[in-house]
């Protein structure tokens, strides 16, 4: 049986795979969230049309849904990139913790959350 220079190699790679799957789950949840926002917007627009009302706000909701859906896909791609980079680093014993990817994802999701909060505040204040 060959000697394994790193007894934690399998554990490290399995942890990397679990982390990638967390990125995938988050991306899928974000995609589904965006799809739900978009579908709700379309349903709301049709409901208002049946009531004989016109509303300009569902258009923004559709765009927020599209942004969320695309963001979910980008999260999955960022997770894949991070997984591959970490796998290579683990194989070459040159592992470096994530810095930029984590920061950019955090800032973008925070910004998206603020946009959604602002949109909800706008609807609560101006769309009566």
Describe this structure in words.
About 80% of the residues lie in helices and about 0% in strands. It is built from 3 helices and no strands. The chain has helices at about 10-50, 55-90, 100-125.
Alpha-beta content class: mainly alpha
Element string (H = helix, E = strand): HHH
Distance from N terminus to C terminus (CA atoms, Å) equals: 74 Å
Tally of separate helices: 3
Gyration radius over CA: 21 Å
Which residues form runs of ≥5 with pLDDT under 50? none
Tally the beta strands.
0
Assembly context of the chains:
single chain
Question: Could you report the average pLDDT, rounded to the nearest whole number?
Answer: 86
Tell me, what's the shape?
Answer: elongated
How many strands, what sense, and barrel or not for the largest sheet?
none
Helical proportion, percent range: over 70%
| Proportion of strand residues | under 5%
Task: Give the structure's gist in a few sentences.
By secondary structure, the chain is mainly alpha-helical. About 80% of the residues lie in helices and about 0% in strands. It has helices at about 10-50, 55-90, 100-125.
Topology:
Layout (H helix, E strand, L loop, with lengths): L8 H42 L6 H35 L8 H27 L2
Helix pairs in contact: 1-2, 2-3
Keywords:
single chain; about 130 residues; mainly alpha; 3 helices; elongated
């Amino acid at each position: 049986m060959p000697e394994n220079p790193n007894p934690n190699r399998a554990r490290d790679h399995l942890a990397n795979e679990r982390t990638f799957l967390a990125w995938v789950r988050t991306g899928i949840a974000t995609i589904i969230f965006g799809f739900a926002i978009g579908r709700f917007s379309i349903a709301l627009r049709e409901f208002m049309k049946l009531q004989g009302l016109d509303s300009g706000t569902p258009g923004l909701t559709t765009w927020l849904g599209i942004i969320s859906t695309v963001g979910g896909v980008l999260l999955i791609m960022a997770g894949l990139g991070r997984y591959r980079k970490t796998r290579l680093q683990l194989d070459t014993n040159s592992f470096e913790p994530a810095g930029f990817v984590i920061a950019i994802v955090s800032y973008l999701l925070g910004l998206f959350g603020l946009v959604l909060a602002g949109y909800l505040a706008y609807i609560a204040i101006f769309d009566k």
